[in-house]
Amino acid sequence: MKNLNRIHLSGLRAVEAVARLGSIKSAAGELGVTVGAVSQQVQKTEGQLGVQLFERRNRLLLPTAHMLAMQSHLTSAMSSLSTAIATTERGREDALTISVAPVFAGKWLVWHLKAFNKAHPGIRVRVEATVDLVDPDTSDVDLCIRVGQGPYSGVIAEKLLNQRVFPVCSPSLARHVKEPADIGKLPVIRDPGQMFSWKTWLDLFGLSESILQDGPTFSDGSLCLDAAIAGQGVFLAWETLAVYAVKSGQVIAPFPQRPATGLGYWLISGKTAPKTRAKQSFGDWLKKEMQASIGRPKGADVMEV
After folding, report:
1. How much is the pLDDT for 136?
2. Integer Cα distance of 188 and 227 in angstroms
3. All domains of the chain in start order, with CATH
4. Using DSSP, how many helices (H) and how many strands (E) does the chain show?
5. What are the φ/ψ torsions at residue 221 (nearest 5 degrees)?
6. CA-CA distance, 77 to 84, in Å (whole number)?
7. Dist. CA 268–CA 295, nearest whole Å
8. Is-above-0.90 flag for pTM?
9. pLDDT for position 302
10. What pLDDT, in 10s, does the model give residues 201-230?
11. Backbone φ and ψ of 104, nearest 5°
12. pLDDT at residue number 109
């Protein structure tokens, strides 16, 4: 391993990230440094190795044959190093790494973590906002919060809350909605990635999806809610996404009915991972906090799963 003496690990991390992610900008985001710093590390590593690792073409970095030959080895090595570091952190009683979807992290979790930190000042929480599935038995993630039907094999899964949906729109548009069929008078904001449809809500009133108008489409639930706040139409939201927007009056929920989608929020932990006080404390707090934060109106629980 003496050949490692002439190559800086930071440089190898940089070239591996650029090759795997496809751009210096993406690599800089993952490594937590500037684009300029990554570019310098790439050039420095090429100089130390004495070969060209990337071909620069129209602001793109294309891996050369030298880079392609070493990329899989580098990625495997970096993964092993990450796992080695993770083993020192697993089982700690004062730290937690939580994997959650970005929309849940941004619209619910960040607004409530202060309460957990106050109740448990000795536990440090790190949030990874991602939709990628991770294995809490083999990664540095302690707990995952996911939405799905469950149950899940190979992990410990605790159901936190049933997912329920309801239409929301701006106060100005809500004036035109007096009965459920009036939803058909408004543009409909859509998220094509949603795991449920308007049928879940419309079936309560014997209405068909054919009454729904066209409207703007966004690939993120947070953007859909923002569009509803901006008065662009009506959006079929869910409770953890829209709870604060409703409470603050940014949007109106014209009707109290909130049918369950058949999906739920689940707290996922590893079967072989250590059971710690930190994980137990966070799980207990999360379930109570989620249920307390929803504030379902009278008539909301029209369907149970």
Report:
1. 84
2. 10
3. 2-89 (1.10.10.10), 95-160+265-294 (3.40.190.10), 163-261 (3.40.190.10)
4. 11, 9
5. -65, -35
6. 11
7. 25
8. no
9. 52
10. 999 999 999 999 999 999 999 999 999 999
11. -70, -40
12. 94
